[in-house]
Amino acid sequence: MRARNNIKVEEKRRSDTLTRVREGAGIAAALHQQFTQQPFLGREEIRQLEKFEKLVKKVLGDVGGDDDDKELTLSNYPSDTNEALQLLSDSAAKLRKEVEATPRQVVSASAINCANELLVIIKLLRRQSQPQR
Q: Which of 58, 65, 118, 131 is least surrounded by Cβ atoms within 10 Å, i.e. has the fewest?
């Protein structure tokens, strides 16, 4: 009986993770599309970016990673905001595919790397969107 309940809890956790990943991929795609229509990140877009960051951190914990704020790097940094949002959208779609393809009993190193990459891109976008002083 206890084992059956544990399986149900794990399946529910997996379902929640998949929902978060899909929602995050949708937010990232919407942010990129909005930026093509208006070439700046407004207050609403910053809120969406913060919501996306929270989702990515939850997914990172769900797939077996940890958010210890160590200094992570990208292989190639985007040169402008449009390129960064395109990379964000592509990486979110990649994370979604990785998580959907990974069984709940497996820790996916590629999903963890992808989530960490997304966090780096988000930090970069937040720095770029702050007003210059």
A: 131
Q: Indicate the pTM of the whole model.
A: 0.86
4-25, pLDDT tens digit by residue? 898 888 889 889 999 999 999 9
Angle 18-85-23 (CA atoms, 0-180°, nearest 5)?
Answer: 20
- Residue 14's nearest CA partner among 121, 123, 105 is 105
Give the distance between the most distant pair of CA atoms in the chain: 61
Quick one: three-class SS letters along 2-60? HHHHHHHHHHHHHHHHHHHHHHHHHHHHHHHHHHHHCCCCCHHHHHHHHHHHHHHHHHH
Contact present, 110 and 98 (Cβ < 8 Å)? yes
CB 96 within 8 A of CB 59: no
Residue type, 87: L
